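Please, structure for the following, as tokens.
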Amino acid sequence: MTGFGAAEGAVAGGRLRIEIRTVNHRHLSVQLKAPGELAALEADIRERLRTHFERGHATISARWTVEPSQAATAEVDVERAKAVVEALRGVARELGIGGDVDLATLARLPDVVRVRPAETAAGAGEVLAVLDEAAVAAVRMREREGDRLGEDLCGRCRRLAELAGVVAARAPTRIVAERDRLAKAVADLTAGVALDGARLAQEIALLADKLDITEELVRFRTHVAAVEGALTNGAAGGVGKQLGFLLQELSREANTMGAKANDAPIVEAVLAMKGELERMREQVENLE
């Protein structure tokens, strides 16, 4: 699901702003853009995000709105400085050049004087506190979107239940029609010859068993009820994966009913079912 959250707080003497953007993804994918001072905390940041999100592609951007204080440190290589002074004085004597080596000359030599900014010590607790606040805001936005998706999916469940009712109402009529069709076909083929009623009844019974979709309808309606229950009551660890499995089972039952149908109205209802299921599958990819 899509979401956005931002927070800002005091970190290491400065102020750090963290923004989290999430978009749809089947699994949790994290992309982190942060100052170098936070590189050591990347694993902690990724692990903390898993406590807030289970699915989605999350982009985390962190930047300093107020730079932390960085006291510079200067390092002087005294031994190298002595060697440079002696070498320069020796050249001056050999060439007969006046003057002496001063501090300004030594300060310009990078191998003698090195100035380094102190590394910012960003504590994990401070950074993760800001991250938590931003994540909570993003989750809140995702929940609002989830509520709307849930309403849409519940409406489609009701439509699936209606279509299952159409199939259930048509199923007995279809069996009778197939029985009459078979009896007429046999009569036409035998050209008025007396039929073995027991054998015909046996064939009709086999045909009825082959075309029966009662079990598929029961399972289909059970799965629809399970989807509605998951959307209404939620599930431990999120409903996205559970709904994905249920929709897969619903598609299997719909396909079986369509294969057994041999009846235009039932086939039409099954095709409508499959259309609803496909749209639901696309939506479920967005749910956590």
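Residues 72-117 form one domain. The first helix runs from residue 42 to 49.
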